[in-house]
């Protein structure tokens, strides 16, 4: 059973938790930026988290083939760091939802986004689907939303 939710996760941004990561180059289109973000989240979510689920019993809720979660991710316009994020569609399996959130947190910063996708409020809004099945975290299931403009 799928449940809708709209709770936000507050992330620690203290220097003690920070890790050194290479900054990706700036890109010029929303599609290129989604591909860049995907290149950083895929190794964590699909290649590591989903691959490790094979070690769980087939009856584990994490091995339900069609579960998915949808995240809204809000990035800053300078480095593509997460300002906030939350679940807008819960999978029904809390561990799966947390894995999606942790993936994005670990993969950041994503690099400076193109100016064309920065909303008037100075944020970049991404909607990203994380699937248990073959769709995993592919950019075809991600969208940029410029708030304050027509959909």
Protein model, in words:
The structure is a single chain. The protein has 151 residues and is α+β, with helices and mostly antiparallel strands. 25% of the residues lie in helices and 21% in strands. A 5-stranded antiparallel sheet has the order 1-3-2-4-5, with helices on one face. Strand 2 and strand 3 form a beta hairpin.
Summed up:
This protein has 151 residues and is of the alpha+beta class. Helices cover 25% and strands 21% of the residues.
Using the coordinates shown, work out and report the CATH topology. Fusion Protein Consisting Of Minor Coat Protein, Glycine Rich Linker, Tola, And A His Tag, Chain: A, Domain 2
Could you give the order of the helices and strands?
EHEEHEE
Low-confidence spans: pLDDT under 50, at least 5 residues? Answer: 1-21
Total beta-strand segments: 5
- The CATH level-2 architecture is identified as 2-Layer Sandwich
> What's the gyration radius in Å?
15 Å
- State the end-to-end CA separation: 29 Å
